[in-house]
């Protein structure tokens, strides 16, 4: 994970009465094994955060940050100036929405053939260590679990002009809607995507596909596992879900079947969508068998297409599968 450029700026916020102020770094940070390890840990921590996804505004006059970033990539602006401009725009956000300041770490790096820009406002936490004399001593360390402002940009996808790839993501902690919206504005985001809603739509499309194909329970479970494994892996790596790749995994014999189902049914999904870990974890199938009756359905259908009457201990299925309905009708003829 070679680091091309990195820098640390400090946004200082004191007692709440004094406005936050920026203490900019004067030069890029020197490369070191410690910085490499911090980047790896930062990426891991970031991928586990709740995020929003989107792209830069595609206007004739681009917003300040993507405009400055273009100049940096063209060699017209140095990394220190680029990140200082960004830090200046983030300082009022910290002042208005956060109780504490922190250190703004910005790193331009490569990961395989891809190139990313990652930034995060980091706080410290107090801890303990043991020195060379085997004495317990107080120590401060970065708290990567607390990351109120962070973002990650896939530079290659942005420069390639991708119309579908959600190449920019940023943190969206619970209770911080105004902060997240202000952060998106500072980044110059256009048409942000709701990862949880996009993931729910994908799972709804998958459930419809399984029902339409009238698949056996074992086959349905295998395809569900394939979807969840792939989508969860993409989420862990901070990458979007490719519907074409997913379709190939869901059905190797008909690799485009699920993809065509999504396109033909107009679910409004782009070819690549951001995954949401929480939504994926909540997706499962309820399955039960007793007295010759076998029932299985996706958990998100409970309360919608399927209702449970606790008082009478019975399930109410609002939409009977077509094949099952036809079998019942033939039996009654």
Automatic annotation (TrEMBL):
A matching Pfam family: NA37
GO CC entries: bacterial nucleoid
Q: Where in the cell is it found?
A: Cytoplasm, Nucleoid
Keywords per UniProt: Cytoplasm
Tree of life domain: Bacteria
Subcellular location, principal: cytoplasm
Q: Which GO terms describe its molecular function?
A: double-stranded DNA binding; single-stranded RNA binding
Protein family according to the UniProt entry? Belongs to the YejK family.
Q: What's the name of the protein?
A: Nucleoid-associated protein
Q: Which gene encodes it?
A: ndpA
């Amino acid at each position: 994970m070679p680091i091309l450029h990195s820098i640390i700026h400090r946004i200082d916020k004191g007692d709440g009465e004094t406005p936050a102020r920026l203490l900019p770094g004067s030069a890029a940070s020197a490369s070191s094994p410690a910085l490499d390890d911090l980047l790896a840990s930062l990426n891991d921590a970031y991928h586990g955060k709740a995020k929003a996804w989107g792209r830069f505004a595609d206007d004739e006059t681009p917003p300040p940050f993507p405009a400055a970033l273009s100049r940096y990539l063209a060699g017209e602006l140095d990394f220190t100036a680029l990140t200082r401009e960004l830090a200046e725009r983030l300082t009022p956000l910290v002042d208005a929405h956060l109780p504490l300041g922190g250190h703004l770490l910005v790193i331009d790096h490569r990961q395989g053939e891809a190139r990313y820009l990652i930034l995060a406002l980091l706080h410290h936490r107090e801890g303990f260590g043991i020195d060379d004399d085997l004495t317990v001593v107080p120590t401060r360390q970065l708290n990567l679990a607390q990351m109120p402002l962070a973002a990650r940009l896939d530079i290659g996808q942005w420069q390639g002009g991708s119309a579908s790839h959600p190449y920019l993501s940023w943190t969206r902690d619970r209770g911080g809607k105004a902060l997240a919206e202000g952060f998106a504005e500072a980044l110059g985001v256009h048409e942000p995507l709701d990862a949880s809603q996009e993931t729910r739509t994908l799972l709804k499309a998958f459930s419809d596909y399984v029902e339409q194909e009238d698949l056996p329970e074992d086959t349905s479970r295998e395809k569900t596992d394939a979807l969840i494994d792939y989508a969860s892996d993409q989420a862990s790596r901070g990458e979007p879900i490719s519907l074409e790749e997913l379709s190939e995994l869901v059905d190797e014999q008909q690799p485009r079947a699920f993809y065509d189902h999504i396109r033909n049914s107009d679910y409004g999904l782009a070819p690549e969508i951001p995954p949401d870990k929480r939504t994926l974890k909540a997706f499962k199938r309820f399955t039960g068998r007793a007295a010759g009756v076998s029932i299985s359905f996706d958990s998100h259908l409970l309360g919608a297409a399927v209702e449970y009457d606790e008082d009478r201990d019975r399930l109410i299925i609002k939409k009977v599968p077509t094949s099952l309905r036809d079998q019942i009708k033939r039996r009654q003829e």
